[in-house]
Write a structure and sequence with these properties.
Blueprint: H1 3-6, H2 13-20, E1 25-28, E2 33-35, H3 36-52, E3 58-60, H4 67-79, E4 83-85, H5 93-102, E5 118-125, E6 131-137, H6 138-152, E7 160-162, H7 169-181, E8 185-187, H8 193-202, E9 207-210, H9 212-224, E10 235-238, H10 248-254, E11 259-266, E12 270-276, E13 285-289, E14 294-298, E15 311-316, E16 323-325, E17 335-337, E18 340-342, E19 345-349, E20 355-360, E21 364-367, E22 370-373, H11 374-382, E23 387-397, E24 401-410, H12 424-432, E25 443-447, H13 460-477, E26 499-501
Parallel strand pairs: 1-8, 3-4, 4-5, 7-8, 7-9, 9-10, 10-11, 24-25
Antiparallel strand pairs: 1-2, 5-6, 6-16, 11-12, 12-13, 13-20, 14-15, 15-19, 17-18, 19-20, 21-22, 23-24, 25-26
Helix pairs in contact: 2-3, 3-4, 8-9
């Protein structure tokens, strides 16, 4: 470990790498590249400019800059002792204005950064749809870098491909990991599965940090192009959403020499648990806690048990976030209890000490007085060879409390889907093979234009809004003269998910 890595500051190792490996690649995109010496010089210049201009303690990155320059500016901001806030380039002007207005406007009151000084404000979507800012100090991510190398081995310190936006904390973490470790990082302005596969095959990035949605696209491209296996990749780190483990064998065939790990965490917690991927593991298992993480499963207040004993997952570690910036939605904000934190995920610990994730508290469906975790049903549906993606919801029902409804996207026929997709009764039978009868959906909708968040996750709230529109429209248009016809697609706003009722 270099003196810079031991300092507890995210940017500190950069000076060491500029001296010891100044000509090595630090950052590379399709259009621009910087060595560690060039990066250090640019960061030093930017830091001096922020100090000279008396920039506030928190500076919002210019999202119009190219990604490499945004990273230079990020490092310059934090090297000046300030905190960098990272906006999403796709935010509407009104959202960007609201976010900027909520940032702290205080001036610098300390001459230099300290391990517990804030260095980063990231954003995650709240249930209201407005971005929710979370703030982190240097030590929380330096500790995350350290435990990443400890758990995943020396390949985590190699040059890493981080093919996502810096506005998504998973990819920003991968970018800064490459700079902190000295391995360097390759980035993409916009994700391209074809370009990512070319980069990985070139051997310049032995490590990959990725979301499941990106891996699926890469697997699809590799299959359609009949690509040969890629031997140059040694480590694949998967996070951001649930990995479809039924495709693990295909992933191993494409990257035969790679160690493939999944890790679970949150913007507010950083790492929580991890495991080497295993196609035979139950979908709810997310692994054992990292070495510096303690876990507790606590009963939900007012409800002694959920879904067979699942409780709120509380975490204690040196990697937790500081606080929220701006208004935090109380329904989704993390819960604090001294040194312990919960992001309102529910789960259990199995006999092997592995964390089993039941789902998010605000996505639980109460039907007929019983609890159903949406994620549990989605995992069962996505295991069907004809289904690529699933989103489970509860629709208000005066008799049951909520009626279970599922929205699905059909898989491509090349992925093993049958030529004739199953009907609703066949899918109900599929669900009942693995789940109690009350957990099987009463209705199904098919969605082709599947919505995703900026981080590549399924946008469940957006699907819920379309479902609400669809159910009300179906009830108002359904009449006896339509019996026997295939239900029509429910009209919706331009660009919104369009749902087709499944007969």
């Amino acid at each position: 470990m270099t003196p810079g890595q031991a300092s507890g500051l995210v940017h500190a190792p950069l000076a060491d790498w500029a001296q010891s490996r100044g000509e090595a690649l630090a950052i590379r995109s399709r259009n621009e590249s910087l060595t560690f010496a060039q990066l250090h010089a640019a960061v030093t210049q930017r830091a001096a400019a922020h100090t000279k201009n008396q920039a506030p303690a928190t500076v919002l990155l210019d999202s119009a800059l190219p990604l490499v320059q945004r990273l230079v500016d990020f490092m310059g901001i934090i090297a000046s002792g300030r905190c960098a806030a990272v906006a999403d380039p796709d935010w509407p002007a009104a959202v960007l204005h609201s976010v900027q207005g909520a940032l702290p406007v205080d001036l610098m009151d300390a001459p230099s950064a300290q391990p517990l000084s804030p260095f980063y404000v990231g954003y995650t979507s709240g249930s209201t749809g407005l971005p929710k800012g979370f703030r982190r100090h240097h030590q929380s991510w330096v500790e995350s870098f350290r435990v990443c190398l400890q758990a995943f081995g020396p390949d985590a310190a190699a040059c890493v491909l981080a093919p996502g936006r810096d506005a998504h904390s998973l990819f920003l973490f991968g970018m800064l990991l490459g700079l902190w470790s000295g391995g360097g990082v390759v980035v993409q302005e916009r994700f391209s599965a074809v370009a990512a596969l070319d980069i990985l095959r070139s051997g310049q990035t032995p490590a990959l940090i990725t979301a499941p949605s990106q891996l699926i696209l890469m697997l699809d491209v590799a299959r359609h192009k009949a690509l040969a296996p890629i031997d140059a990749v040694r480590l694949i780190m998967i996070s951001g959403a649930r990995w479809m483990r039924r495709r693990t064998a295909e992933l191993r065939a494409l990257f035969p020499k790679a160690r493939i790990v999944e890790f679970y965490g949150a913007s507010e917690t950083s790492f929580i648990a991890w495991m080497d991927t295993d196609g035979s593991s139950p979908a709810d298992v997310v692994g054992r806690p990292f070495a510096n993480v303690e876990l507790q499963i606590r009963a939900v207040p007012g409800e002694p048990s959920h879904g067979g004993g699942a409780g709120l997952i509380y975490v204690r570690s040196p990697m937790l976030f500081m606080d929220y910036v701006g208004a935090a939605d109380d329904a989704t904000a993390a819960l604090r209890d001294g040194d312990w934190l919960s992001v309102r995920d529910l789960g259990t610990l199995d006999a092997q000490g592995r964390l089993c994730l039941a789902g998010r508290q605000n996505r639980m469906i109460v039907t007929g007085g019983k609890n159903l975790f949406a994620e549990e049903l989605e995992a069962v549906l996505e295991a069907h060879p004809a289904i690529a993606l699933a989103s489970a919801h509860g629709v208000e029902d005066t008799r049951r409390g909520a009626q279970v409804v599922a929205i699905i996207q059909w898989a491509d026929a090349a992925d093993g889907a049958t030529a004739t997709p199953p009907d609703a009764l066949q899918l109900v039978a599929w669900c009942r093979q693995s789940l109690e009868a009350f957990k099987a959906p009463r209705k199904f909708y098919v969605c082709a234009n599947w919505p995703r968040t900026a981080s590549g996750k399924t946008d469940h709230p957006r699907l819920a809004r379309s479902l609400q529109h669809s159910t009300s429209a179906t009830e108002s248009t359904d009449s006896p003269d339509q019996r026997g016809r295939e239900p029509a697609a429910v009209p919706n706003a331009t660009g919104a998910p369009c749902l087709h009722p499944l007969p």
